[in-house]
Design a protein that fits this description.
The structure is a single chain. By secondary structure, the protein is α+β, with helices and mostly antiparallel strands. Helix content is 42%, strand content 8%. The protein has 12 helices and 5 strands. It has a 5-stranded antiparallel beta sheet. Strand 3 and strand 4 form a beta hairpin. Helix 1 packs antiparallel against helix 9, helix 2 crosses helix 3 and helix 5 packs across helix 6. The chain is elongated and about 60 Å long. It starts with a helix and ends in a 5-residue tail after the last helix.
Length: 336
């Protein structure tokens, strides 16, 4: 009887502590509601931990510093946008490989990046250096055009250098303007923070949504629809929580990781998405996600047979976190 009373008392204490965490979380974001989301600044960017598959990390870091118009995070953003880091990707327009070169462009700008005597569009050791080389060549073509060199380079990548020169900057094509914005937004999700990462305005609403689902039984593939009994899996819950405040995330956890910049563990704020993996070097191996609520806890849909609940985040498989931003989520590719 004494042991049981002690267990009940401990449970009440934990419940009270977590209730306080929720009050703290909402309070933080009421204050933070006037802050702009995303990371600021234009300082040189290095790659955040695990954002690029380990096999390509050194290549992207090296070739991303080829010229002042690019950086490793920007190069990573382009590769992710083009192929999702898939070296066998091929589009309906005949674009090929991890950097999605069309044959004519490859014939002109492909380089033998690994020095093995051939230029293979399907080999990332050639294609990634070629992507960086092509970016820098485009930057050279438009170096005298007014405006931001990187933006003009990206516009040239999409619309051609002639259009950028003709319009003295990013041309008035909606597709090109959206491409430039998309890559620059996605760049932040691959960059290691260089200062404080501001919280998303919508974070409090996402937490509130997830809190209302506490106790709901897990369902693999669950999106919370009526025909599924309002049940979720882990990434279905996080997607629905942010969708409730106007931000559309991709469906799976390893894509959600790139929906914004990556705060360090000691920089976490309520509303951040937290991720878990059996391979701490590769974001594509992420297998679980939750919504951080403060105090070392998250709300998550853990596994079949369990319910949506509070769980600690400080486990050996903790991978990292993402501070969701609207622009970052919009920047994610919709198809590979």
């Amino acid at each position: 009887m004494t042991v049981r009373k002690a267990w009940i008392a401990a449970g009440v204490a934990v419940g009270s502590a977590l209730a306080f965490v929720m009050v703290l979380a909402i309070g933080v974001f009421v204050v933070a509601g006037n802050l702009a989301g995303g990371a600021g600044g234009s300082a040189a960017k290095t790659l955040a931990k695990g954002t690029v598959p380990a096999a390509y990390q050194a290549l992207v870091q090296k070739w991303g510093n080829l010229c002042p118009a690019i950086n490793p995070a920007l190069l990573a953003a382009q590769l992710y946008q083009e192929s999702g880091f898939n070296p066998r990707a091929q589009s309906h327009a005949a674009a090929q490989g991890i950097a999605q070169f069309i044959p004519g462009t490859w014939a002109t700008h492909g380089v033998d990046g690994d020095g093995d005597g051939d230029r293979d569009v399907w080999d990332p050791n050639d294609a990634i250096p070629s992507a960086a080389t092509y970016d820098c060549a485009l930057a050279g073509y438009v170096k005298d055009v007014p405006g931001n060199l990187t933006e003009n380079m990206l516009a040239s990548y999409n619309a051609g250098a002639y259009a950028v020169i003709k319009y003295s900057g990013v041309p008035p094509y909606k597709e090109t303007q959206n491409y430039v914005k998309r890559i620059l937004s996605l760049e932040e999700s691959f960059a290691a923070p260089v200062g404080r990462v501001d919280p998303s305005r919508q974070a409090a609403g996402a937490i509130d949504y997830a809190q209302k689902k506490l106790g709901t039984l897990y369902l693999w593939g669950g999106n919370g629809t009526a025909d599924q009994g309002g049940r979720f899996d882990c990434s279905g819950l996080t997607k629905a929580a942010y969708e409730s405040v106007g931000i559309t995330l991709p469906r799976v956890a390893n894509d959600q990781y790139n929906a914004g910049p990556h705060p360090a563990r000691d920089e976490l704020l309520p509303g951040d998405l937290v991720f878990f993996s059996d391979d701490l070097t590769d974001s594509r191996a992420i297998r679980h996600v939750g919504i951080y609520v403060g105090g070392g806890y998250m709300i998550d849909a853990p596994r079949p047979g369990a319910v949506i609940r509070f769980d600690p985040i400080d486990t050996p498989d903790y991978f990292g976190a993402t501070r969701v931003t609207e622009d970052g989520a919009k920047a994610l590719p919709t198809a590979v």
